[in-house]
Amino acid sequence: MRVNSSAPLSGPVAVEVKVGEKQKNWSTTPSHIVHHFGTSGLAVAVATAVTHPLDVLKVRLQMQFVGQKGPLNGMGRLFLQILKKEGPKSLYLGLTPALTRSILYGGLRLGLYEPSKYACDWAFGSTNILVKIASGAFAGATATALTNPTEVLKVRLQMNSSMKQSGSIAEMRRLISEEGIRALWKGVGPAMARAAALTASQLATYDESKRILIRWTPLEEGFHLHLISSAVAGTMSTLITAPVDMVKTRLMLQRESRKVGSYKNGFHCAYQVVCTEGPRALYKGGFAVFARLGPQSTITFILCEKLRELAGLNAI
Predict the structure, then answer these.
(1) How many distinct helices (H) and strands (E) make up the chain?
(2) pTM of the full predicted structure?
(3) Contact, 78 vs 177, CB < 8 A?
(4) How wide is the angle at C-alpha 169 spanned by C-alphas 164 and 172, nearest 5°?
């Protein structure tokens, strides 16, 4: 449809032009793509480095009393046990694959959200909350499918302090030789489901929280808006993803679960956990998930927004 440049813009035409401007802003020049995905990956990597000890605690908590019921250790007690038996360095087990995954997975997860949202905007003429959820789910699932091997290596190293001497490359070689190349994609189904739920809840909540706060409060783009929106996003994503995260961890650590045999898939794992350990077991490590995901979401979004500003990109 052609628009007379001398006529004033109003009504639907103005919206069409605004949408077009958004699409133009998300260009496909090499420098823009590098800045777009690079700022996302760097922000997630920094947040991961800061919160990695909490991730180690989360994995250890999720693997307590596999296949049986029992009094669970709290995060504080487990923290002291690890320090006493394995030393402070054990809190950074699996850091190398975690950072590698953060740059790749984080860059893709956050980076694919905007183009997915704009594609839906172009196709359907809308960026409502359902579009944001769908865009986040697509971005998260795609990123995880591509980077699952680094997640498998990370949780293996986090569970076994004896592996820290050999390192990530040696563990990957051992894993492939003993269990085959497919072992690197163990738990990819629940991992994709978790990433889809995480990214959909986290990014859609953050995006929508910003929109609501800008509309109904005096807040504008800046630190305080990003802080409040990221805190809301971290809380929402924790509630939704904690059970899926626990199932994903169990599947990736099948050898630690020999007492109950091999899990066939994510649904079978969840069923076995509920039957043998009780429904509350789905939230094992739930507080550690929140303690990690809350600060990680805040650091990620605040840093990512600042890096995007410095790179000349629009806010998320």
Answers:
(1) 12, 0
(2) 0.74
(3) no
(4) 95
